[in-house]
Design a protein that fits this description.
The chain has helices at about 1-5, 15-30, 40-60, 80-100, 105-115, 120-125, 130-150, 150-155. The protein is mainly α. Helix 2 (about 15-30) crosses helix 3 (about 40-60), helix 5 (about 105-115) crosses helix 7 and helix 6 (about 120-125) crosses helix 7. The longest helix is centred in the first third of the chain and has 22 residues, at about 40-60.
Length: about 160
């Protein structure tokens, strides 16, 4: 859920609350769940709706800035700084490219490419026609490749 929400545009500061909200909705609606769809698809649909609510709410709220620097996690204490910096640059670049994709394409692209969901499962989770999923996936992949600077022959084989 955490990854699905983050990839759907929920701010880092709101991820814990959004994840909790997903499970609150799940607990409330579990008895009424339609068994025709898989549990994963059903959960992803809820996460998508919660993420949309978080993005709308984020535009109305203001964040409070602080001078406190969070303490590093214990797992971060033994990491090579050069490797960590390269990973952070790659992560930031990936986030920038994904943020530049239109939201509808980004959600489908991430569900397909990163979460490895099938197109029919994505259509069911989002409540959209299968052809729309294919169109958004193709457009999102094309735009992603273009922004990432992949050569045309490499894009064609992907």
């Amino acid at each position: 859920m955490w990854r699905a929400l983050a990839r759907s545009g929920v701010r880092d500061a709101d991820l814990r609350d959004a994840t909790q909200e997903v499970f609150i909705v799940v607990a409330r609606k579990l008895a009424d769940r339609d068994e025709t769809s898989s549990l994963t698809t059903w959960l992803y649909g809820i996460a998508t709706k919660v993420a949309a609510n978080c993005r709308r709410k984020a535009h109305r709220e203001r964040e409070e800035l602080t001078d406190e620097v969070p303490a590093p996690l214990e797992s971060e204490a033994h990491v090579d700084p050069g490797h960590a910096l390269a990973n952070e640059h790659a992560r930031v670049r990936l986030a920038q490219i994904l943020d530049e994709l239109p939201l509808d394409q980004r959600v489908v692209f991430m569900m397909c490419e990163l979460d490895e969901m099938s197109c029919p499962a994505i259509a069911e989770a989002l409540g959209i026609p299968l052809g729309t999923v294919y169109t958004r996936r193709r457009a999102g992949r094309s735009m992603f490749d273009q922004k990432a600077g992949r050569p045309a022959e490499e894009q064609a084989s992907a």
